[in-house]
Every structure is written in C-alpha cells, then in structure tokens.
Amino acid sequence: MPRLVILALDASSAVGVLGVMVSCARRPHTVSPDGLRLRYGRLFSLDVPAELIASARIDRRYDEKRLVCLADGELALAVSSQTNIVAELREPIEVPRPRRPWMTAVRSAAAVRRVRFFADDPAAVRAVGALSMSH
Fold this sequence. Notes:
By secondary structure, the protein is α+β, with helices and mostly antiparallel strands.
C-alpha cells in the first residue's frame, strides 16, 4: 500500500511539471514594437514599454536562485537557474511580487531598473536592442 501512495505522488508531481512546461511553451516572452512582454507561463507576466528600454545585452548567468526573483532593483526570470539577456531600463518600473497560492495577503510591488531573463533564441537580444534604438 505505501508503494501505491508514493507512485500516486510521483505521478501527480510529473503531471504538475509537465503542466508548467506546457504553460511556458504556450506563453513565451514576446517582443513587439510596443515593448517587451515577459512571462513565466501563467505564473507571472510583465509588460515593459519600448520607451523604457535603454539597452539590451547578452549576459549569461547560471546561478539564479528562483524562477522569479526581485532583489536590489533587478527582476530575474530564470529557466533551469539560467538567464542570458539583460535589459537596462531608463527609469524604474513597478513589478508585482509573485503571490504564492496559499498566501492571502497582497504583496507590495517592487521598483526595478534591470530585467534579466532567459531566451533560447539569440535574435531576441537584437529585437530588444532594436526597441532601445527606436526610442
């Protein structure tokens, strides 16, 4: 009987991980003339207007602690503890702190001037950089 319980927990964990993977694949980061939309599946979404993007560059980091981390004026959206693009902002933008499902209180927003994220297409840095040139 204990083996069945463990098997059920393993199966539900696998379904949960697959759900997050599908959610991230269906809701990727996007770059448009209006700006940059950063998303982590259904868990997090942030629109950065094009006029706020000062510059973008490749900067690979492999030591991110969380999927979504707000600290020291920086937002990091990591995939497998990695980020590879940094966008510097002209002025701070308010970012809502991620809320855990079990939390009832609304958490305060944080101001960030730098956004780090992971994109598997190197053309993304050129697209984000082009936004900074157009404004």
